[in-house]
């Protein structure tokens, strides 16, 4: 019995010692972990915040450059646009019946004008109505100042604002648009006594021997078919006529008429063909005769609906 009691006490003492040792080891491990974590955090903090003077100088220089290159005007413009947008968004919507009344009054004012009134008179009439209406509404707003809760007072204040600062928005909302009058003034800076310049043909100038006639179409037998004979300019077409006459073989007809199409959209002719820009017709006629000159007559255009008003061709009669 005594031996059993002795072993029981020894077992309890051993268990207590083992538990104490485990607790000491656990505390030691926790202390070690906390110390390592503190050291790591301290080292990491020191790495982040400690900069050399040269690094600090570079960072300050970088900040200065960014500020110097900041688009100040653009930022200012954007802020102003935001204010404008916010102002437009804050526009108080007028009641529909008030809008209808304003529209009717403006229309009545415009109807009172003469039928031949120009846009300036129309704009003045609308502006005079706006000023008169604004004075009327301001007077109404002053008369309702003593009222603490009145829909009439509130509507008067809204209408004053609409007729003053928000007039452009209100005009758009009610569909009012009067176009600005465009005054065209022709400036004649031509020296006195100087004649108007002749119509300029594309390409190099025509020599006098070509005897060029604008808006003219001469008749004659074709020496060179123009549908397949194109030249860069009327001067080149005239030169082709002169060269053909100079080098013509015995018995061949010599060119004494040249007809050229200078229009980029082509030239009209009563035949079945489509005549394009730069066509150069070389012709011969013993007695050159005009087909058309300056413009097509009204009777001709009645019978030829596709004919333009002005003759598009340019021609000349040369010495063969």
UniProtKB/TrEMBL annotation:
The chain crosses the membrane at residues 16-40. Keywords: Membrane, Transmembrane, Transmembrane helix. The keyword Transmembrane helix applies. It comes from the Eukaryota. Residues 187-206 are annotated as: Disordered. This is Apple domain-containing protein. It comes from Salix purpurea (Purple osier willow).
